[in-house]
């Protein structure tokens, strides 16, 4: 046990793995390290279930409606950015599913430059441009057939209406 009185709080994120006709939908986004590739992904908001979060993030980053079909897995990675004295551990809940057509007139989230459909070989060849090592790991797990039912995640009603303790 650490002597530090502050509780460790990993950043919880959600990600969408979307495959269509042998290509995967990725986003090219601005980061402190320059333009990088990522699955449509982002932080889970307070009072939001992981399913709600991944649908929201996919819509914001791709301008497409995402329909989750399965949970791929729960992933963890640590990222240190020494220039900013950041040391963050991410817990990523990754889902696979399908998307509709791009919604005309809908703009992409701030920092997202464009969306790209890439083959797995193109994604592997651009590994140095991945925002996280989890980008390819989630796709590899998808290709390996890993799937968990969506009801593997239980959401207690208290998420939306917190229990009051006297």
TrEMBL record:
Keyword Magnesium: yes
Nudix hydrolase domain segment(s): 7-140
Alphabetical list of Pfam families matching this protein: NUDIX (PF00293)
Single GO molecular function: hydrolase activity
Gene3D superfamilies given in the database record: Nucleoside Triphosphate Pyrophosphohydrolase
SUPFAM superfamilies: Nudix (SSF55811)
Family: Belongs to the Nudix hydrolase family. NudJ subfamily.
PANTHER family in UniProt: NUDIX HYDROLASE 23 (PTHR43222), PHOSPHATASE NUDJ (PTHR43222:SF11)
Xref: InterPro entries: NUDIX_hydrolase-like_dom_sf, NUDIX_hydrolase_dom, NudJ
Entry EC number(s): 3.6.1.-
Names of required cofactors: Mg(2+)
Sorted UniProt keywords: Hydrolase, Magnesium
UniProt-listed PROSITE patterns: NUDIX (PS51462)
Gene it is expressed from: nudJ
Tree of life domain: Bacteria
Name used for this protein in its record: Phosphatase NudJ
Binding partners and assembly: Monomer.
